[in-house]
Amino acid sequence: MKQRGITVAGSMLVDYVKLVDIYPKKGMLCNVGNISRSVGGCVPNTLCDLAALDSQLPLKCLGVVAEDENGRFLKAELEKRNIDIEDVVTVSEESTAFTDVMTVESTGERTFFYASGSNKIFEEIHIPLDKLYEGIFHIGYALMLNKLEDKDEEYGIRLARLLDKIQQLGIATSMDAVSEESGRFEEVILPTLKYLNYLIVNEIEMERISNVKISLENGSVDEEAMRNACEKTLGYGVREWVVVHAPGGAWAMNAKREFYACPSLKLPENYIKGSVGAGDAFCAGMLLCLYKGTEMSEALKIANASAASNLSATDSVSGMQSLEEVEKLYAKYAVK
């Protein structure tokens, strides 16, 4: 019998988190304070968060790193959390991908400067279908998967063909995207949707996938527009759930068009140390709940609290706690 658990595949990188006093205008200067190194990208972030939430959950990592210090660092960080790295591919022709994360110290807002490195090599041959865990296969980030986003005559893009193969194995498929300033959402993401059980994205990505304006000028979300965006996206073929997160809350709609909403936690002043990895933390909380069959009304609370837990640290994973502690965090700071 195959191992049951969660496999996460795709973007693996190192984050260099650099605290700055301000984010400067073009040509201007800011002061860099503390600099730290952390795991980064969809795969390490989501897996490390899942391991923190549930240390007994079987987790498998799939991706590509280089034969360098950052590659060794990533594998060591995953291995010490008992995450299966047996099928992580190590190459010599590239350096391990990295991101400079410029984080404004006073607000936690961050800007990313990304070097794709070994992530450019990642493709279907690096995903051993016969070794995938039964349960959930999660991949990210769409729009950063390079070779998997090449055209495919039958499926539109190669990623859609891969997801179809995985679904045919009886494994639920899930995907996350990246907030990118481009017009590629239609050509890259739309072909994959009918081969997904779960789509988990933020409000910016949902706007671009659905072509429905969701965000209001004051930074909040138009909930009726969110409902319409989720329904339109399900119409493209997502089989079970569309889940969206934003600073103000989280929303979900299933194939029956049942709609759920949950506000973010009301965190105390000075609680937020950084927001890098908050989306992955939300995703980890949601994946754990989907894996366990948790009711969506409860799943949104846990995913929101997982993101809030992440906000307590400057890097992408150090703030995550156990599921029990995350539930306590929600109870403490939930909007009454």
Low-confidence stretches: none
SSE ordering = EEEHEEHEEEEEEHEHEHHEEEHHH
Whole-number count of domains: 1
Number of strands: 16
CATH H-level superfamily title: Ribokinase
The helix count comes to 9
Look at the structure and give the mean pLDDT. Answer: 95
Structural class, from helix and strand content?
Answer: alpha/beta
What's the helix and strand layout?
Layout (H helix, E strand, L loop, with lengths): L3 E7 L2 E8 L11 E9 L1 H12 L5 E4 L1 E3 L2 H11 L9 E3 L6 E7 L5 E6 L18 E9 L8 E2 L3 E2 H11 L3 E6 L7 H4 L9 E5 H8 L12 H13 L5 E6 L2 E6 L4 E5 L14 H15 L3 H15 L12 H11 L3
Parallel strand pairs: 1-4, 1-9, 2-7, 5-6, 9-12, 12-13, 13-14
Antiparallel strand pairs: 2-3, 7-8, 10-11, 14-15, 15-16
Helix pairs in contact: 1-7, 5-6, 7-8, 8-9
Structure description:
This protein is of the alpha/beta class and 336 residues long. The chain has a single domain (4-12, 40-97, 119-333), classed as UDP-N-acetylmuramoyl-L-alanine:D-glutamate ligase (3-Layer(aba) Sandwich), CATH 3.40.1190. The protein has helices at 42-53, 69-79, 158-168, 185-188, 203-210, 223-235, 278-292, 296-310, 323-333, and strands at residues 4-10, 13-20, 32-40, 59-62, 64-66, 89-91, 98-104, 110-115, 134-142, 151-152, 156-157, 172-177, 198-202, 241-246, 249-254, 259-263. It has an 8-stranded mixed sheet, with helices on both faces. It is globular, with a radius of gyration of 19 Å. The chain starts with a strand and ends with a helix.
